[in-house]
Protein: DNA starvation/stationary phase protection protein
Organism: Zoogloea ramigera
Amino acid sequence: MKKKSAKTAGPVMDIGISADDRAEIAAGLSRLLADSFNLYLMTHNFHWNVKGPMFNTLHVMFMAQYTEQWNALDIIAERIRALGHPAPGTFKAFAKLASIEEPEGVPTAVDMIQLLVAAQEATARTARGLFPLVDKANDQPTADLLTQRLEVHEKTAWMLRSLLEE
């Protein structure tokens, strides 16, 4: 049977990453989860409310994007849990942690695209900001998760941005 620590009252975790590093990484992943959730919600909202000449294109594109984003939420939350920390899961927690603000009202289709570009880029910056800590802690699973998320956010931002070009 594993020893119990006084702090956690459960089995001691020894995965080769210090408790302090795991806590810092989990905190960073919690910010990524909050940004990802806000991005998911914004994209789904825009899917429901888009109108105008680009309706069909954007409606379908937003559905693909929010579906991908929804699936990513579980992956991020489960990595936080694997590091031994609770994943945030309330609007209140996400509001405190997120760098992405909710838009007011129903933007025009072009404004939706611009807001989503900014939100994709913000989420990419949040993910990228974790690499120094993850690298220092030798945390390859989190590095892999971050690399995959960056690829999605950068590609999606590029695709959305291309809709704004003349």
